[in-house]
Amino acid sequence: MARKAADDMKKLRKKGGRFFGEFKTFIARGNVIDLAVGVIIGGAFQKIVNSLVNDIVMPLISLLTGGVDFNNWFLALGEGDFATVEEAQAAGVATLNFGTFLSTALDFLIMAFVIFLFIKGINALSEKLKREKQTESAPPAVKKCPYCLSEINIAATRCPHCTSHIPVDTQVKE
Domain residues of the chain, as ranges? Predict the structure, then answer.
């Protein structure tokens, strides 16, 4: 009985070692590290967006709407009349905080717009680099006949238009 328990423990250690080995390989992959860096930068960026919305955009919207504070747009789900969300919550009344939701939705829209602009810029840069690389690396597919100036295949040794013999290294520049 003790022998079987010892064998079972060895099997578990082997499985655990394999499991943690696979986990170590997974964590060491570049994609996971890139994702972790992205999450950390995204968290820091979220603080900037929250500050932009709460400290700049929402006060401007409040100014345009006559000084309305969106954080105090709420519906009390109980008895009583409350001026602020804090008063209603202190009285133990449940509230629907649609002003806070509006502020959070605005946070999301600004974050989505900034990410859209960022991705759009990266895609434009990527396309530009791809086009530059293609124009640099793509050899010309045609050349001009030195006699009739028609475009012919780069490998042609005789012009299909004027039937002249074309030396291999002859090409008229445009």
Answer: 17-136, 139-174
Q: Is 37 helix (H, G, I), strand (E, B) or coil?
A: helix
Distance CA 164, CA 153 (A): 14
Q: Does domain 17-136 have CATH number 3.40.220.10?
A: no
> The tokens of 139 are what?
């050899």
The rounded distance, in Å, linking the Cα atoms of 66 and 53 is 18
Cβ neighbors of 146 (< 8 A, separation 6 or more) are: 164, 166, 170, 171, 172
E strands, 38-90, where? Answer: 75-76
Question: pTM of whole model > 0.85?
Answer: no
Task: Give CA angle at 41 (40, 42), nearest 5°.
Answer: 90
As given in the structure block, the two tokens for residue 17 are 């070692």
Query: In this structure, are residues 25 and 31 in contact, taking their beta carbons and an 8 Å threshold?
Result: no
Contact indicator for 162, 147 with CB cutoff of 8 Å = yes
Q: What are 122-169's pLDDT values in tens digits?
A: 899 999 998 888 777 767 788 889 889 889 988 888 998 898 888 876
SS (H, E, C) 134-152: HHHHCCCCEEECCCCCCEE
Element spanning 20, H or E: helix 2-28
